[in-house]
């Protein structure tokens, strides 16, 4: 039996061996649009997915392929397909499954762009979504109808930090023969690889912790390989003949990775959400240090929580590791390595005080991202979630005084010192 490598080793090696021609240890950057075919038969076979290989970088690319294999290995999944962004990954994954008349059940605790995609964009394609409280399992069950294809949620909600009971929801999805799709960005595979818990498809924004350095945007669709597409007639896009490629049936030809094959044959061909090879290279550099960075992120988060909880200018603090969090016990059981490095909190004095704090800190950066090596702060209600309606904002757990903090890798004493000056300025309003 071959040895199964651990997470830290996979983050460095999965999907790649040294370049056979030149011996490059680093992943080569294949900055090319296309690839020379051996002959006409070889070209036709590539286009019909009869053989593996690359024909055009919109479809696949050797550098991107290493990234895809590495992420799949870290998530202990069957396959993965990288895309130009996390939103491209989600949109393309949903349309690989859903058609006009289909229905999605989704958590109300989602990133603002995810909400808008499901609530306003997809209905233009005839795809309807019912939003539910992800902690209310009876509400989830009652929302499922005969034409429901997917249950979609974030494992750690953005920015409300609600924790999804993955095991319980997986059981419900299995009972109703619907696909269980999650956004795993906030946990990364380091904190939880949910395929073993029954998740079928994982969406990651590679822009965040997995890239980790704020230099490359990317996304990925991870296929757990654990959904039986032939067990129900709901998924005709996967289990019936494709309109091209000689009427290929992806379920019959590719079995566990039928979704990935369909995604590459349709989404990558027709939508074109391809990841640039250079961005794949940058993200691979991030993955190599992901375990080390996540450890430091979690350590700094715990120290910063102690500071915030004890500070007289802070009105409230939310993080799943805190005993007062509603899913504290679930988070401790499901995420034993830690519940992520996002903290939300409120400052006494409300929105004006929060504004003053954000404008006073100097080490912490005020920008629209999370999971960076550097500490980041933002006011979600006026930025990342400003385009969703007031009811959706309330359902997502947003309050007007909420500040979202993405804890970075700086020396914790320097982060605290920066926060102290910001809070001091806020207290003078």
Integer average pLDDT = 94
The percentage of residues in β strands lies in 5-15%
| Count, helices | 17
Strand runs, count: 12
Unreliable stretches (pLDDT < 50, length at least 5) are none
Largest sheet, spatial ordering of strands: 1-7-6-5-4-2-3
CATH architecture of the largest domain: 3-Layer(aba) Sandwich
- The topology string of helices and strands comes to HHHEHEHEHEHEHEEHHHHHEHEHEEHEH
SSE topology:
Blueprint: H1 7-13, H2 40-47, H3 62-74, E1 79-83, H4 86-97, E2 103-107, H5 112-121, E3 128-132, H6 137-143, E4 148-154, H7 166-175, E5 179-183, H8 188-191, E6 201-205, E7 219-223, H9 236-239, H10 250-254, H11 258-271, H12 277-288, H13 290-310, E8 314-318, H14 328-334, E9 342-347, H15 350-360, E10 365-366, E11 376-378, H16 390-395, E12 402-406, H17 412-427
Parallel strand pairs: 2-3, 2-4, 4-5, 5-6, 10-11
Antiparallel strand pairs: 1-7, 6-7, 8-9, 9-12, 11-12
Helix pairs in contact: 1-3, 3-12, 4-11, 15-17
């Amino acid at each position: 039996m071959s040895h199964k490598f651990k997470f830290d080793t996979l983050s460095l090696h999965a999907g790649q061996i040294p370049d056979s021609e030149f011996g490059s240890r680093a992943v080569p950057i294949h900055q090319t649009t296309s690839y020379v075919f051996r002959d006409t038969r070889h070209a036709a076979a590539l286009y019909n997915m009869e053989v593996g290989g690359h024909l055009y970088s919109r479809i696949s690319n050797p550098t991107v392929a290493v990234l895809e294999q590495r992420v799949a290995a870290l998530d202990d999944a069957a396959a993965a397909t990288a895309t130009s962004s996390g939103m491209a990954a989600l949109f393309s994954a949903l349309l690989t499954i859903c058609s006009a008349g289909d229905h999605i059940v989704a958590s109300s605790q989602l990133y603002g762009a995810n909400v808008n995609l499901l609530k306003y964009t997809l209905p233009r394609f005839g795809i309807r979504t019912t939003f539910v409280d992800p902690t209310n399992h009876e509400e989830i069950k009652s929302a499922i109808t005969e034409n429901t294809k997917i249950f979609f949620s974030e494992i750690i909600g953005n920015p409300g930090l609600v924790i999804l009971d993955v095991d319980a929801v997986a059981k419900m999805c299995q009972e109703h023969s619907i696909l269980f799709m999650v956004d795993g960005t906030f946990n990364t595979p380091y904190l939880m690889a949910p395929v073993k818990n029954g998740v079928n498809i994982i969406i990651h924004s590679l822009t965040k912790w997995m890239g980790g350095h704020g230099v490359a945007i990317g996304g990925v669709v991870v296929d757990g390989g654990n959904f039986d597409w032939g067990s129900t007639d709901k998924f005709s896009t996967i289990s019936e003949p494709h309109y091209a490629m000689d009427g290929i049936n992806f379920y019959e030809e590719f079995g566990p990775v039928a979704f990935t094959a369909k995604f590459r044959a349709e989404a990558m061909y027709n939508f074109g959400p391809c990841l640039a090879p250079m961005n794949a290279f940058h993200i691979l550099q991030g993955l190599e240090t992901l375990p080390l960075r996540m450890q430091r992120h979690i350590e700094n988060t715990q120290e910063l929580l102690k500071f915030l909880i004890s500070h007289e200018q802070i009105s409230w603090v939310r993080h799943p590791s805190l005993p007062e969090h509603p899913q504290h016990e679930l988070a401790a059981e499901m995420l034993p390595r830690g519940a992520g490095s996002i903290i939300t909190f409120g400052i006494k004095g409300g929105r004006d005080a929060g504004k003053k704090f954000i404008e006073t800190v100097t080490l912490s950066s005020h920008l629209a991202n999370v999971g960076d090596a550097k500490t980041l702060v933002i006011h979600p209600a006026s930025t990342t979630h400003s385009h969703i309606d007031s009811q959706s904002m309330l359902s997502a757990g947003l309050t007007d005084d909420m500040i979202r903090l993405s804890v970075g890798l700086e020396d914790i004493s320097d982060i605290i010192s920066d926060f102290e000056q910001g809070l001091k300025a806020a207290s003078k309003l």
